[in-house]
Write a structure and sequence with these properties.
By secondary structure, the chain is of the alpha/beta class. It is built from 14 helices and twelve strands. β6, α8 and β7 form a beta-alpha-beta unit. Pyridoxal-5'-phosphate (PLP) binds next to α4.
Length: 366
């Protein structure tokens, strides 16, 4: 074993001893309360058929063949991006290979040296990784804490200020107070950028997201919509101005230095978007199921959290599995120490019987 491997192994053993070792598991044949396929679209035959129809109206190419700037800019890209910009009411859209690479590209390239990004402390790793690559200053504000955000905004700053947050937080499931954040941004002359990953398809008119639901499309300067969660597909788009789009094409390294997504993947996302925006029934079922699980009407979303009463949550996860349910224990470093939780993702296609059984099981572990 090399010296490096010995050192790496020591770290892994330490992680295992702390009960935090991540491992890849084969798929479990259990009732799934862990995936982000909130509307249950990922296996829908109608979407598969629609995707084939869209794909067949373009020349067939198996893969991206090259980066978008070299040979991968298949004609479906421009058409889908135009559709997305129109759907979300923004000047332009730019597709990225994933939400991770969209956030990496946006936060690493758009804020310039001398600018600052003030971001919610629970922002997704992809936002924080982008900021680590950025030349701009970055400062977190306490999760959803408007007073702390305003304290940050009051601090003198010569360059541009960008406030970054998510619509629905991926590990907590709560919503960002976007209306108030937008008000503060106006007061202090800041831009607001919102990652809509867990809101796309779920809230807003025809699933346009939280920005749309709060009628803030004109106020929010940039949104990231991902295709891999409620849309059940893969990829992401940045919705913003033409200038920001052109800047990303020129400077976002996660856009430039990678092979374009295959056209079939765009056809899948386009089909899922088309279906999702035209069908309310999944959203209605989803929110009926959320209500059944959470017994709360207001502001509750598909991501529900079970924190337990100091129980070992890995054991709770195993107990759920023995009863046929899969919901994942989220442990540090994904969440801070002391904030371990079982993350329960409610879906439109869960049966009420399964939701009630899971609820009962969780209660019995308390
Ligand atoms: C808030 C948020 N943004 C971005 C991403 C990354 O998106 P993708 O899975 O498409 O890379 C995720 C996924 O976990 C997320 O939860």
């Amino acid at each position: 074993m090399s010296k490096l491997d010995t050192e790496l192994e020591r770290k892994l053993v330490q992680r295992q001893e702390e009960n935090r070792l991540r491992t890849l598991m084969p798929p479990k044949n259990l009732i799934d309360f862990s995936s982000n396929d909130y509307l249950g679209l990922s296996e829908l035959k109608e979407i598969q058929d629609l995707s084939s129809k869209i794909a067949s109206s373009y020349p067939f190419v198996l893969g991206g063949k090259g980066s978008r700037l070299i040979s991968g800019n298949h004609s479906i890209y421009g058409d889908f991006e135009e559709w997305l910009a129109h759907f979300h009411g923004k000047e332009s859209a730019l597709v990225f290979n994933s939400g991770y690479s969209a956030n990496l590209g946006v936060f690493a390239s758009l804020p310039q040296k001398g600018d600052r990004v003030i971001y919610d402390s629970l922002s997704h790793a992809s936002i924080r990784d982008g900021l680590r690559l950025s030349l701009a200053g970055s400062f977190s504000f306490k999760h959803n804490d408007l007073n702390h955000l305003e304290d940050r905004l009051k601090q003198d700053w010569k360059g541009n200020t960008i406030i970054a947050t998510e619509s629905i937080f991926s590990m907590h499931g709560d919503r960002s107070p976007l209306k108030e954040i937008s008000g503060l941004a106006k007061k202090y002359g800041a831009e607001v950028w919102v990652d809509e990953a867990h809101a796309t398809g779920i809230i807003g008119n025809a699933g346009r997201g939280l920005v749309d639901e709060l009628d803030l499309s004109q106020e929010i300067d940039l949104c990231i919509h991902t295709f891999g969660k409620a849309l059940g597909a893969h990829g992401a788009a940045v919705l913003s101005s033409n200038i920001k789009r052109n800047f990303l094409i020129n400077y976002a390294r996660s856009f430039i230095y990678t092979t374009a997504l295959p056209p079939s993947s765009l056809a899948d996302s386009w089909a899922a978007y088309t279906y999702m925006s035209g069908s309310e029934k999944e959203r209605l079922s989803l929110f009926a199921n959320v209500e059944l699980f959470s017994e709360a009407k207001n502001n509750s979303g598909p991501i529900q959290v079970f924190s337990g009463n100091g129980q070992n949550l890995s054991r709770v996860q195993s107990a759920l599995e023995e009863s046929g349910f899969y919901a994942k224990a989220i442990l540090p470093p994904t969440v801070p120490l002391g904030e371990e939780r079982i993350r329960i993702c409610i879906r439109a296609n869960h049966s009420p019987k399964h939701i009630l059984s899971l609820k009962k099981l969780l209660k019995s572990t308390n």
